[in-house]
TrEMBL record:
Coiled-coil regions listed in the entry: 2-60
Protein name in UniProt: Exodeoxyribonuclease VII small subunit
Organism per entry: Campylobacter porcelli
Protein family membership: Belongs to the XseB family.
Gene label: xseB
InterPro entries in UniProt: Exonuc_VII_S (IPR003761), Exonuc_VII_ssu_sf (IPR037004)
Entry GO MF terms: exodeoxyribonuclease VII activity
Keywords of this entry: Coiled coil, Cytoplasm, Exonuclease, Hydrolase, Nuclease
Amino-acid biosynthesis keyword on record: no
């Protein structure tokens, strides 16, 4: 089952908090950064799909 947009944003926020940890190793920082980028890209795609859907609904109602 796919995650919803809100849960992706929550995970991104938690990753950002983790990245601010001074005791985080460089390796862990890089992993968190990669995970964060993946989540951001997935969330961005969800927004784009929603935008297209809304546009299509608007065009269909004209």
């Amino acid at each position: 089952m796919s995650e919803n947009f809100e849960s992706k944003i929550e995970k991104i926020e938690k990753l950002l908090e983790s990245l601010n940890d001074e005791n985080l190793t460089l390796s862990d920082s890089v992993k968190l950064y990669k995970d964060g980028l993946k989540l951001v890209n997935e969330a961005r795609a969800m927004l784009e799909n929603a935008k297209l859907e809304i546009t299509q609904i608007g065009e269909d109602s004209e």
